[in-house]
């Protein structure tokens, strides 16, 4: 007969292992010339990005004669792509959204690394911010986010920048050829379009819920995946005032670490200067 496990000793062993891991982590941070640990800044009120319902986006007509002769999977992919183009065509230049093709200023090139474009994540029209918003972000212009998150590179580069100017001057970028843009960890390089409506967090602002689902949010606090400072610590960043800047859910063809979340984090001192040059990204999933 097997002896019952000594669970006290088992958990003590786990705690010792975690303590050793943390000590090694701190040692490596110091060896890199960093502080022993990072910190989290004062969380800012969450601003929710609501996404349209499937009915509002339009049906995926995979049974159309247009796709006759294609296999089931191919027909769904083709019909989804056609709906995506229709959704993008309906949106005005500069509309807040995740995915699709960016509406860029004429003098700003699609960000690249190692000769290839970074996947386009989001553009947010800051004029859409709720009027009750704490003035942490610029009051107008657009916040753009690009990034590559894959399993083949140790670094996960992110480019976030702010642009001011007339919407009429923006130019919708053409779709890059497959060899011109990096794929993500699921081999996707151009994401489905997810139009966004910005609203205060109804749970924090005493507002009624609209029935639409969240696609992500600005700011907010620790929601179960660790505080911003803890994520910065894991990524060997330095500073004592990290906060969430932009959080993207797994929506459309965006899938972050198995239906998780993509966190773009910033130091509060950088946000105060509208300096987005040190934003970094982290995928988290349950």
Spans where pLDDT lies below 50 across 5 or more residues:
none
Rg value: 21 Å
> What structural class do you assign from the helix and strand content?
alpha+beta
Question: In DSSP terms, counting alpha (H) and pi (I) runs of 4 or more, how many helices?
Answer: 6
Q: Give the CA-based shape.
A: globular
Percent of residues in β-strands = 15-25%
Please describe what this structure looks like.
The chain is an alpha+beta fold and 286 residues long. Helix content is 22%, strand content 22%. The protein has six helices and 15 strands. The protein has helices at 7-31, 54-57, 72-90, 202-205, 228-234, 268-272; strands at 47-50, 97-98, 103-104, 112-113, 116-117, 120-125, 142-147, 158-163, 171-172, 194-195, 197-200, 214-218, 242-249, 261-267, 280-284. It has a six-stranded antiparallel sheet with strand order 11-1-12-13-14-15. A hairpin with a 2-residue loop joins strand 4 (112-113) and strand 5 (116-117). The radius of gyration is 21 Å and the shape is globular.
Give a quick summary of the entry.
By secondary structure, the chain is of the alpha+beta class. The protein has helices at residues 7-31, 54-57, 72-90, 202-205, 228-234, 268-272, and strands at 47-50, 97-98, 103-104, 112-113, 116-117, 120-125, 142-147, 158-163, 171-172, 194-195, 197-200, 214-218, 242-249, 261-267, 280-284.
How are the SSEs ordered, and which strands pair?
Elements: H1 7-31, E1 47-50, H2 54-57, H3 72-90, E2 97-98, E3 103-104, E4 112-113, E5 116-117, E6 120-125, E7 142-147, E8 158-163, E9 171-172, E10 194-195, E11 197-200, H4 202-205, E12 214-218, H5 228-234, E13 242-249, E14 261-267, H6 268-272, E15 280-284
Antiparallel strand pairs: 1-11, 1-12, 2-6, 2-10, 3-9, 4-5, 6-7, 7-8, 12-13, 13-14, 14-15
């Amino acid at each position: 007969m097997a002896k019952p496990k000594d669970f006290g000793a088992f958990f003590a062993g786990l705690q010792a292992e975690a303590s050793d891991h943390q000590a090694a982590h701190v040692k490596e941070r110091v060896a890199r010339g960093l502080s022993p640990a990072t910190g989290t800044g004062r969380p800012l009120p969450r601003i929710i990005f609501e996404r349209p319902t499937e009915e509002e986006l339009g049906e995926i007509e995979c049974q159309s004669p247009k796709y006759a002769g294609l296999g089931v999977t191919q027909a769904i992919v083709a019909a989804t792509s056609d709906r995506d183009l229709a959704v993008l065509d309906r949106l005005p230049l500069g509309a807040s959204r995740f995915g699709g093709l960016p509406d860029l200023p004429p003098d700003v090139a699609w960000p690249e690394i190692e000769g290839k474009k970074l996947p386009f994540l989001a553009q947010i029209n800051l004029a859409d911010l709720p009027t009750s918003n704490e003035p942490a972000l610029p009051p107008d212009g657009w916040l753009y986010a690009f990034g590559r998150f894959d399993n083949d590179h140790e670094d996960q580069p992110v480019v976030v920048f702010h642009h001011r100017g007339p919407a009429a001057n923006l130019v919708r970028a053409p779709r890059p050829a497959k060899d011109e843009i990096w794929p993500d960890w699921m081999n996707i390089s151009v994401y489905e379009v997810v139009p966004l409506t910005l609203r205060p967090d109804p749970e924090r602002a005493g507002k009624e819920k609209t029935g639409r689902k969240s696609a992500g949010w600005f700011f907010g606090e620790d929601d179960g995946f660790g505080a911003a400072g803890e994520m910065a610590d894991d990524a060997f960043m330095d500073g004592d005032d990290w906060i969430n800047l932009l959080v993207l859910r797994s929506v459309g063809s965006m899938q972050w670490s198995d239906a998780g979340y993509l966190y773009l984090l910033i130091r509060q001192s950088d946000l105060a200067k509208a300096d987005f040059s040190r934003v970094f990204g982290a995928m988290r999933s349950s």
